[in-house]
Amino acid sequence: MAGPVRIACFGDSLTEGYGLHSDEALPAVLERLLGEGGVPARCLNFGVSGDTAGDGLARIRQVLAARPDAAVVAFGANDCFMGEPVETVRATLAAIIETLRARAIPVLLAGISATLAQDDEYRDAFETIFPSLAEQYGLDLFPDILAPYFGNSDLTLLDGLHPSAAGVEAMARAMLPRVERLARSVEG
């Protein structure tokens, strides 16, 4: 393969780098860490604050137009926060995955815990979305994008929800083995 692997990081504010400089956002940090590990990659930032999975599906053409070699799909936080129906979220994420796979773009799915859900029944149903999609489509799954930083005031912005630069670093380091595997699958 000529040149670095192009990875579309496709998600919401957690991908975009809400409240941070562009070089502190998840795609930039993943790109740096991959490079340090000897994996030449260009991580493209397709994160938009406030986006739900439905918003992501509505703008997937932008991602496809960039001609990525692989994609990290990281939606769900806003869907959960807004209490979107679980089946709708699942179907929309499935449509995103199928659209990428139809273009032979390998996907790493980033799950999210329903930490902010008020209803236990909703939380339990929501948290099945990501493992079930990963199983259905044979995808590698990063189980919970919040886990590396959420609840640690040293790793969050003042809102207590979004990661600080240190929180993004923790998130990227936790995701790195799977993102590296994704990049190497394209290289190979």
Largest sheet: 5 strands, parallel
Kindly state the mean pLDDT as a whole number?
95
Highest CATH level, the class = Alpha Beta
Fraction in helix: 40-55%
Q: How many E-type strands?
A: 5
Low-confidence stretches: none
Could you tell me the strand content as a percent range? 5-15%
Total of domains: 1
Can you say what the CATH homologous superfamily is? SGNH hydrolase
- Could you tell me the radius of gyration in angstroms? 15 Å
Task: Offer a quick outline of the entry.
It is built from nine helices and five strands.
Salient structural properties:
5-stranded parallel sheet; 9 helices; 188 residues; 5 strands; alpha/beta
Describe the structure.
With 188 residues, the chain is of the alpha/beta class. The chain has a single domain (5-183), classed as SGNH hydrolase (Rossmann fold, 3-Layer(aba) Sandwich), CATH 3.40.50. It has helices at residues 13-16, 26-36, 53-58, 60-65, 77-82, 86-102, 120-126, 129-137, 165-187, and strands at 5-11, 41-47, 70-74, 107-110, 140-142. The protein has a 5-stranded parallel beta sheet with strand order 2-1-3-4-5, sandwiched between helices. The radius of gyration is 15 Å and the shape is globular. The termini are close together.
